[in-house]
Design brief:
alpha/beta, 3-stranded parallel beta sheet, elongated
Length: 437
Amino acid sequence: MTTGLRLSGDSDQPMSSHLDELTGRAGLLLFALMSSSLLWMWWIDDVLAQYLQLLSPCSIEECLSVYAPAEWVAMRWLSIVLLGLVSIIPIICWQALSFAKPGLLPRERRWLGFFIILGGGCGMLLIAMTMAWLLPYLMLIGHESGATAGVVASYDAVEMLRLSLAVAAVELVVLLALMASILAGVTGLMSESNVTWWRWRLHGISLFLIWAAIPSHLTGVRLLTMIVSSTMLEASILPFTSSLFVSRALPPGEGILDAEGGLRRMAVVSCMCAGACQLDAGAWLPESMASHQANALCLSADERDELIEEARFQRWTDILITGCDSTPLPEHLQQSMDALSVRLRGLSLLDIVASRPDGRIDHLDLELALATVSDPWPQNRVSARVLDVVIDGPLHIAESFPWGLVLESGSRFARTDVLPFEETGADVILHLGPQNA
């Protein structure tokens, strides 16, 4: 029994190796931040002077002052660090994606990639537009309103910079929270079954960052901003909790009850076995069972990871592989299913394909194979379930596929115990094994 999921690309490494990798990447980012900050030290005075000239609604000499020199020095150093941080955003995104990607499921990798690329690009564009156009425009409107009322304006340079950084930070937090929720819904990570998990994290993190970004003396503005942010974020979450956007084939709370009254969420995986078993089981399954498709689970690492992801998100309890009996599947897949408490079995339809001269297989073979499954269905009902399948030829019954059996046109095969079929009609052919002979 394994203690966690194992993807196809995972390898057994001690925790210290991951910590060493994290330390190395963090050291690289720290070095890049220090280097870029040192470069910005040479131009910070010119940058601040140019931005204050752009932000101030009047000439700097007339209405802009520094009332707290110590705060100005602190703002100057903060600006150096922030500019250095903005300069290395591409490196931060690259290192974050490289470090997290090996341990993520396919859907999570898509979400993280879209979030980093779109979030980084849209965030930079929003900050640039806010600080270069929106804030100067708002400052000009406020200055003209005060001049109309006869107020003589005198602005604090530190407070203007602090306000502009707070506005940009709040906008960035709200934008990233909205993009995280929308991308989670689009990629299928968020649905009705796990929306509470997403709500706690998105609302909690975004509200905390907004509370920290807005100055403490702006209590009313902080409260209003948090309310508006929560409303917008909730509006972006709600559409993905409806059935229209749910990507799961088996809705939450549905499945098959076993003999003990437990809910079994069963899925049939139509593995094509690289073209050898061409059968799509999804069209013939009852609504109480989920379906999944794969071309070759034994050969494709990505398809195995996708199966692990579907089993985890849909909370499957049983998986039936159409092609084989599940024993040829790689060990890491079976360990991951054990970690998820998923019972992995197979229908072995490849035996039927190999026994037919034309290699044909259809939905009747699938129905017979499902009828022989004794869990969660009772064992004493297997024979009745098999005989309920309407076929147009003889039915071969055996506990294992008989060596050399050729299924002619119309012949079918069911893999189960032969004893309950001894009193049936002439169309049932029993193949007794050594233990029944």
